[in-house]
Amino acid sequence: MRLSLRFAILIFLSFLVVVLNFIIPYILQGLGITNQSTISSVIFYLRIVLYIFIGLWIVSSIAEAIRVYSQKRLGIRANVIANSVKYFGYVLVLLLILLPLGVSSSTLIAGSTFAGLIVGLALQPVLSNFFAGLLIMLTGYITVGDKIRIVSTQVPFYPAQFPAYKYFSTDFIEQGYKGTVVEIDLFYSRILLENLRELRVPNIVLLNSAVLDYTSKYSEEQVINVRAEFPLTFVDISNLENLVKEELKDFNVIEGPYINEQSDKDHVIVLARLKVGINEDWRKIKSDALKRLLKLRQELIVKKQQDSQQIKNS
């Protein structure tokens, strides 16, 4: 809501307080209530209610002004400061408004302490999410725009059943929901998953979870594995690694290629590790590298078949 509109509503509420003494007596007398003590009590309590509304509105307006004017400079932390001011101000307004009711300060403090204990126990899940949200925003545990994966037993994730050979693969199998953080509220955070569905995670669950950050400031690169299967009957084992290395010369190979394992008695698997930038499309790079290896395999098979045919013809 715009600050000008908030100011206009504040003036309207203040005007209601001024005209309260003139309108309410006539309304009550029209209802048949003529006792001055009763009229005074009704006016008093209505005034208290209006004071509470005005106080809460002022606090909310101040918090909104803080958020608006510090958003560009502080970013997401502007929301944290604004929300902290708002909730602290709400409590302060309620305490100050109760004093005209004849409640002594010592009784008010003791009562608020007891009430705070009861409310705290009753709202423990709510408060835990609230303070977890403050910690997340203040410490930068995650920030809006981060691409993360949540690894937690509190957010169950059941991956599709992999083929049997995948369990012997050197690919990184990372379980958990992956997406981009789009909003961090005081009670829960919104994560836009890769399938464009929105996942809302309570802040206390998020704070107690391990988070895999794909946009970490400590690393601007990532490593991917590229592996291809070659038939033993169609390749020269002693020269296979050199051929693969030549095919992948245009990629940033940091390890390999080398014969990593034997998938069965007739095939071997060649593995190479490539380094790509964090902002690069690693899927396309892996696809291009794999295409070259598959093309190499096809060429070796065709060449071996042609050589065998020539020998047979001769």
TrEMBL record:
The keyword 4Fe-4S is assigned to this record: no
GO cellular component: membrane
Keyword entries, A-Z: Membrane, Transmembrane, Transmembrane helix
Domain Mechanosensitive ion channel MscS as annotated: residue spans: 126-211
Database matches in SUPFAM superfamilies: Mechanosensitive channel protein MscS (YggB), transmembrane region, Sm-like ribonucleoproteins
Residues making up the signal peptide according to the UniProt record: none
GO MF annotation terms: mechanosensitive monoatomic ion channel activity
Sequence intervals crossing the membrane: 7-28, 48-66, 87-120, 126-144
Protein name as annotated: MscS Mechanosensitive ion channel
Species of provenance: Saccharolobus islandicus (strain REY15A)
